[in-house]
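Issue 218. Parser rejects a valid record. Input:
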Amino acid sequence: MFLLVHRVFLVKVNGKNSNETTADSGAGQGSVLGPILFIIFFSKLSKLLKNINGIIHFKFADDLKLLYSYFIKNFDPTIMKKAIDTVSDWCESKSMKVAPTKTFHVQFGPSNPNAKYSVNNIEIERKEVVRDLGFYIKNDCSINDHLDIIISNANRKYYSIFKKIIIKDEKILTKIFNIYVRPIYEYGSPLFNLPKKTIIKQLENGQKTFTRMMFRRNNPRITEIPTYGERLKLYEMSSLHQRRTVADIIMAYDFLVSNPNSNIDLCYVPLSSRSGGYYWSNHFAKGKYNSLHFSTRLSSILTNLNIKLHDYQSTKQLRNHLSTIDLTDEKIQKYSD
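Output the parser choked on:
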């Protein structure tokens, strides 16, 4: 109980402490009980929103999304307004306020100029692109804006590394790239790891440039630079595309084996033939979009590799096996332009 009551805090600046003050709200950071208390605290809000017909809501920590799907001819502005008012009133009852400047309105599909909402009498800003949990989402669901931003951020970072760090040690430079730059490319990659050559090339260019700059720094007198594939072997690196494919397969393993999820539309169909079986996805989208879906592209990759995920005892064992395969081979993955 001392996590909730009888708590005090002070502020320390330049070695001097302020007077102690009672902490009568919040939970201590880094505690085991803190996240559980947070979930309990916000569970009431979920119950209130579930009672509003037509509204679907998603929560992650203190991030909340309200979704209202409709046909233009059946648009009812009161539905979303009721949901927004419910959130605002609940926050007020808990001595909090919804921040209008951090609240955005995104319309997916045909534009509806009549859909206007406000918080605390301030109209919610309508945007075409919003940042949500580290992803930049556009109202047409394309990933081009997200890719442009992460590639730009990664480029600035590795150029800054070469400008500020003058060492030539290849192992240190490679480690710096892997720690500070590569995660920018790989954060949440299963969401945008599409089998399109233009996207693969766009994402790979950063590591290509980095390895080329590193080779030139260490071999200024050599005019003929090894190919990208040769540089990867030289520096004991994997292509970003191969790493993203491994991440996809590991996520599929997590969904189907480690933490089975009934919502995943990917299943294994056993056969009595030598092939043993195949993976199948019951997700069907029209035209080119079908091949871009996570389950669809994974069913193809796993079947072509003849991998049965349940045969592996751990992700480590699976990773070890994947490290022996060229996952960028076009016999394994089908690419589109």
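Fixed in the parser; the record now loads. The mean pLDDT is 88.
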